[in-house]
Each structure stands twice: as structure tokens, then as C-alpha cells.
Amino acid sequence: MLLSSFTYLFYGRQMAEDSGSELLARGMEPWQEMLMENQELYQERQKGEQPSEAGAARIEPLQKGSPLNHGMEQPEPPGEGRHAQEKGEKLGQGDTPSQETADPTQQLQTGISRAGPPEQEVTPKGQDLGPTLNHPVLEGDGNTSRGEEMPRVFQRGAKEEAEPPEEGRREEALMGELSELVQQVVKRSSWWERHGIDDSVIALNFLILPAGFLCLQSNNALLFLLGIFILGIVHHTVTVKGSHLASHNALTESKSWGKVWAIFFLEVCSAFTAEQAYYNHVKLHHGYTNVIRLGDSSTWKLPFLNRYVYMFIAPIAIPILTPLVALGLLKDVELKTALRTLCCMFLGLYSHYWLLVNVSGFQSVQSALICMLITRSLLAHPYIHVNIFQHIGLPVFSADKKPKRIHLMSLGVLNLPRNALLDWSFGHSIISCHVEHHLFPNLSDNMCLKIKPIVSQYLKKKKLPYNEDSYMSRLQLFLHRYEELMVNAPPITELVGIQ
């Protein structure tokens, strides 16, 4: 998804993963596969039994100590899991992302973060550094698929501490219990609820698109402004809501179609590269939410801009910077992928210009380009604001001190109140159900809204944080504490006794 496009000029990125597909061969949907395993594992633990073979294989690394955090999986030797099966994003399984999900070593090579965790970095030999959409899709917690062996990117010393087994089981039991509650809701939901409603919202935007171009023909100022408004709403619904759902494969239950929609929404409509958007949003942001220099939303910060320029003027430049950033990132991908991205970007931008000239009747290139800029930046201000409001200013953690997944997401994510315009254009999972989205990222906007009462009640019952605040309250906070939140490095939170 295009969640940090205008600052990618300052942060390059490389990635490398290959994967296959196993869920389709099993004939099961991703959420069914994961939730069945979560439920089985949770019930076995409640009975005091040893986990099943599949569960034990997944838990064993969590109890052996970790290169990044208490409970993180110990990576397997490099070179053995290159063609592991693609599993898809799973609902809330596990606690921490795997190494391959967001390789900090690759980050340091290209500048997404200038410093990494204190462990020794080792780049696997023979690792392909070209971004691709055919990498393992993240599970609900940012892990790669089970059975996939990750390259060793960090090595700890001999004093590596093992996580207390009881604490690890207790934290996993919380996530397993919540996943079981969500499973019951998902199983009772129809395809229409799981995908149909959000697909229909996006389809309706395409249906009203001709009306927007026709309104721009009018000499009436109100009709002309209506046309600008329609084109702006359609653009942001397609490029934000559509791209976001496509990057999580939440538009369809087919992995193949999911990749097609990701390329369409991200490259044709948003003029960005699908591979880099997937890596930075799904793998880093979701895999390491609020972990310093990994998924801490630092790519949104531009310290050289003052608060008023950043909050109210800079967002207008997003439509210009986005394709320029994408062009700069194409050097990191294979030639055929770069050619595909160039063709898709040109198709999307030229189609917009052609319709303005030939349907709306713009007489000059300059006027058509100005109209494109206005419509593509219509909701750029709330887009920037929402993305910083919901993570920055909340607790951040070092890679070796981060809490378990359910604590990480409840502490580091915030929900905003429902807003009809933003809910339609950006989606519930970005606005009012962001906590739910981070816990279960493969669910559609409508399903995040449906499980919201369950998640909020469960977290409050277990006395875990459930952050909520208003848009205006966060805006005032950021204007008042801009230097602290957006310029200076935030202090790392030490979770004493939370586990």
C-alpha cells in the first residue's frame, strides 16, 4: 500500500523472497487454515496436553531464545527454504515477525533505517535482493508461512536468554483465545460480509467516475466543483482503500487474483511499485509495528519541515512525489518487473489526462495537469494525518525489548472515531478499526468493523490497552508537540512487568 510514498525519496529499499502456494492445493481459505490451527493449539493448552505435531513445530522456536526478542523464532540455516509454500496472511497466529518478513540487514544496505538492532548482521550468501510480489505472504502477526525456513540475518552471543515458558504460553493463549472468538464471527459471516461489501464500494466509485468527468464540462461553478469532488473521492477510494485491501489480499479469496488487483490498484491507479509498497507496509509496518527503525513510522517524518508546512502544505505534493519516488525504486527490481511497473504507471496517468482532455474538454495541457493535481490531493491532508496520528506518539520499542504480539498491537495502535467521508474513502481498517486491522490484517474493512466490539471488549476485559482518540485531539497534540514527536527521536519504552 502507498502508506509512506512521499518520504520514500529518502529511503531506498531492497527485498528478496520467493514462495509458492499451498493453501489452494489444500482447498481451504487462509483464515480457515489459520483459525483451525489456533483453536486446536489453544484447546490443547487449556487441557494441559502437549501441543500437536504442527503446533509443537510452531512453538518450539519460541521457547529456544531469540535473535531479536523474547519469543521470536530462531532462524533456520540459510538456503533451505527458498521455495517454501505461500501461506497467506493468517488471523493472529504467533507473536513476532520472522527474520525474512522484514530483513533489517537489507534495510541497512539501502537506507530505510540508518541503524539496526545491536546484534551482529550476517547477509546470507546467494540471497536474491530483487523485490518481488512472489515472496511469502505474511501471516496475521507478520510471520512468514509455517514450514518456511528463513535466512540467518542475526546471530546472538552465547549469553542468549531463553523466554520463560509460562510467560510465552500465557501470551500465546491470549492471542489464541481472541482468535477463537474472531473465528466464530468469521465462520458465521457470508462471502458478502467478508468481501462483497467492500468490493461493491470500490465498484460504485468506478461507476460514478464518468459523472465526475462530465461535470467538469460545465460552465456552472457548482457543477464544476462537484466534478472535482467526485474525481477526488474516487481517486482516494481506489488508491487508499483499494490499494490497502489489495496489499493484504482482502478483496478476494484467490491469491492469483489478489496479485492482479494489487498491481492494478497500486501501479495503475496509484502510480507506485507494488513490490515496494507490499514490503514497506505489510512486512515492515505490520511485522514490526512501532519497533524502532523497523516499523516505527519514522518514514513519515521530515524533520527539516516546520509543523505548519508539514501538516498543511507538504501533503499537496504527494501526487507529484509518488511517481518520482517509484521511478527511483525501480532500480531495485528485475527488468521485467520494472518494465511492467513503468507501463502500468504510464497507463494510469495518461488515461487520467486523456479523459480530462477528451471528455471534460480541457483545452490546454497545463489546465489538465492542474486538475489532476487538485483531484489527486483532495484528501491528502487527512491521509497524512491519519497515518501519523495512529502510531506516532504511542509507545515504541527496541527490537530486543518488544512485547508479545497482542501487547505490541494494543499498545502501539490507535483508533479514530468513525467518519462517513474517511470511512468511505480510506476504509474502516485505516480509520476506526485500526487496532483490529493490526491484529487480524487479512480481514476486509467490513469484517474489521464487525469484530470491533469483540476485540475491544476482550482487550478491556484482560486489562490491555485499547487506544482511541479524536481527530482534532490528535491534530492539536501534534501541532503542540511537533518537535518532540516528529523531529526528535522518541524514547524507547521499557515494559517492566507487563508480561
Overall description:
By secondary structure, this protein is mainly α. 52% of the residues lie in helices and 2% in strands. It has 20 helices and six strands. Strands 1-2 form a two-stranded parallel ribbon. The protein has a two-stranded antiparallel ribbon with strand order 3-4. Helix 6 packs antiparallel against helix 7 and helix 8 crosses helix 12 (335-358). It is globular and about 70 Å long. The chain starts with 19 loop residues before the first strand and ends in a 12-residue tail after the last helix.
Q: How much helicity do the residues have?
A: 40-55%
Secondary-structure element series = EHHHEHEEHHHHHHHHHHHEHHHEHH
By secondary-structure content and strand pairing, the structural class works out as: mainly alpha
Shape: globular
Distance between the termini: 33 Å
What kind of oligomer do you see? single chain
Q: Identify the strand order in the major beta sheet.
A: 1-2
Number of E strands: 6
